[in-house]
From TrEMBL, chain A:
Belongs to the dynactin subunits 5/6 family. Dynactin subunit 6 subfamily. GO terms for biological process: mitotic spindle organization. GO terms for cellular component: dynactin complex. The keyword Signal does not apply. This is Dynactin subunit 6. It is found in: Cytoplasm, Cytoskeleton. InterPro entries: DCTN6 (IPR027777), Trimer_LpxA-like_sf (IPR011004). The keyword Transferase does not apply. Keywords: Cytoplasm, Cytoskeleton. Signal peptide: none annotated. GO terms for molecular function: dynein complex binding.
TrEMBL record, chain B:
Signal peptide: none annotated. Keywords: Acetylation, Coiled coil, Cytoplasm, Cytoskeleton, Isopeptide bond, Phosphoprotein, Ubl conjugation. Residues 170-220 are annotated as: Disordered. The keyword Cytoplasm applies. Belongs to the dynactin subunit 4 family. InterPro entries: DCTN4. The lineage of its organism: Eukaryota, Fungi, Dikarya, Ascomycota, Pezizomycotina. It is found in: Cytoplasm, Cytoskeleton, Microtubule organizing center, Centrosome; Cytoplasm, Cytoskeleton, Stress fiber; Cytoplasm, Myofibril. This is Dynactin subunit 4. Its main location: cytoplasm.
Amino acid sequence: MSTRPNPPQKRTSLLPKPKLLTLDPTVLIAQHAHLSGNNPITIGARTVLHPHCRILSGNAAVVVGAGCVIFERARVGMGVGGMGDKQGTDTVLGKNVVVETNGVVEGGEVGDGTVVGVGGVVGRGCVVGRYCTIAASEILPPYTRIPDFTVVYGGGQQRVDRTLEMRPELVESKMGLHEKQLDMFQRLVPNQVAKWM
Amino acid sequence: MAQSFPYTYYACDCFDSNTTTSTKRASQVVAAAAATEDEEQTFDPQNPRSNYALYPLEHLLYCEDCQQIRCPRCVLEETLNWYCPSCLFEVPSSVVKSDGNRCTRNCFNCPICISPLVVNLLENADADQGTPDRHILICPYCHWSTLETGVEFEKHTGVYAQLARIANGGKHIPTSKERDKERERRKELEARQRDSKNPLSPSSETAAVETEAREPPSRDDLFSNLAAFYKSQLEAQTPANPFSPGEMNFSSPSAYSRIMNLYSTNTAKKQKRVKPTPMREAASELEGLVIYDPASDSAAIERIKRDGWNSTLSPTQKLAQTNPHLQFADELRPIPTLLCTKRSKRCRSCRHILSKPESKITSTRYKIKLLALNHIPRLSIRALPPTNPPIPSIPGGSTASQPQPFNYNTLRSGIPTHFLLHLSNPLFDPIRVTLATSSTTPGKVQSRVTILCPQFDVGANTDVWDDALSSSPAPMARRSTINAETGQIEAGKIWDKGRNWTSVAIEVVPGFLADLKNVSGEEDGLDEDDDLLEIPIFVRLEFEADVHAEERGLSDSRGSKAERESREQAFWTVVGAGRIAGR
Ligand SMILES: [Zn+2]
Ligand SMILES: [Zn+2]
Ligand SMILES: [Zn+2]
Ligand SMILES: [Zn+2]
């Protein structure tokens, strides 16, 4: 899980991979964000990749939807430069997914508006519904299925966020806040996307 | 005791000393003598009672008047003030008495996961049309919110008061006055119905219809009904007391005994004196009687069938609620934050204050704090690896040159192992220390223990610079060495010494676990933690100290200066040296 790429390798071999990389022109990629792997990576509109986050497609393709935020040291996808086991699972993040600092999404699907908290782990092949919350340091074992509006908290407990489920207007306002945050990042974080185009 | 090795615990003998002092009667003198004899025996860390006597040095206080260690068991605690840990507001004790021990401002804990709730403003789409803002309490961790129980607030402050008026689902909770009025109204209604009807006719359809239409009474309703009923009963049977105020006084002994007479049968018979006539029991719902209704259970079962386990509550969640008889998640109420206290601690025997925090809530400082670690030498143990250089040239060099960390969890049976006992002195006077231990450790696994230098001096805790600035270093005391051929450490000499510390070597031959198994002939001859190598060590200190502060003041007036008295102190400690390896 914490296999970090060797710094020298990162410099030399991983940078020239643009042909498999599909970036929306509005993507914000901060300095020291790290994208690598032999399989295609697709990143949707207005998505923000913070410094030192890692998008790895060594084992399988990675699709990051529109408006996602991947925070520092978070990891999406698996396999460093073709290492690791062969049978990979594609990683698909929906719209407006937030992976907070040190969060890990190792393949599988994550639905729209879901938040993976600080240090949270979504194991390989998990299917996470829409507007779910994986609380800080919660670990979803591989191949877990989580319905919409679920909150995973307190060491593996699950509950349905009935507040959001009952009130669609609250979902809307939550997404509104998310949009504002995206705007703020666009203004504050220097964009290094040209390096990857 | 689960702690990483090595460790030291200090024994407080308050329990034993209490038993000997309390057995003063002539018939028990023999027993007392036996008890004192007990004290002479080696302290047994395996004894179940020892769990209540052993503490790390940091947990202990020290009474300067009794000149003794004080553990949590032999101090008295006094509440200085009450405060809310969430908003850090002090709550006067009168308010605690009247309103209970919970914060009555805006502090609530989540009924699902107990993290603090925050007040959120609901987005108000029609704000320009004059719709007032709505607020909810929401849990930032598990995302529970009062919306799930249908509660919204008008203001973001005074949430406690607002919540007291809103029931789950947004209904209004009647105040006690409104409850009284409603009860009177219904009583009158019932009375009228009874009058108008022929008492012989059994039909009570109208009443039945009415009860069906009403909701079952809430817990608060029943409580207020029962309280009102008791009050009326007390008033009916007691002549009006000119001194008692209008308030009902349940706590008066006679009222209490009469209420309790309801529930006891035998005490009433025993007492010959004519008691006031026992009160009638509550007979109807308006008097606080609730009759068990099996239909509610089947309704609950149906509901679990429909909504699943997720709609029910865990025991922890139920017990955290004001009403612990809730069953379903939609009945949950936010938990008002429990208040905390600041407490002072007094010595149980002389009542002197041992610790007193500053009364300001936001301050974490103490006005008085008599810690044992400022009065009692710290005894610590660590392994002396066999590969150690014989004489460390600088103090502490022995640890620096340690090639690899010693594994305290695999002590080898039968192989002499050396440890260092390190004693550091917090006092400003030099002390003379005598260490004592029995030759074998108590318990099933008997390890042989030898303290190689049981009597030694420890320097005073003087200014750090005194030592460094003194031009001629004091002639170093005799140091023991390891004999290169036999691996033996010279006995009778200290190992090393510094400004206010001295270390001596201790040789331990860990006992055999396997032998014991064979002897007992059972598989489970050993209990958990029998393989612990815990060495009880009796520490005795002698030192000269200034006479007590207040007494010194007296003596100063008499002209004599710096009067010294010799003091003595003794206590048991237990050092955990490690765990004996199984094989
Ligand atoms: Zn004690
Ligand atoms: Zn508070
Ligand atoms: Zn919660
Ligand atoms: Zn005392």
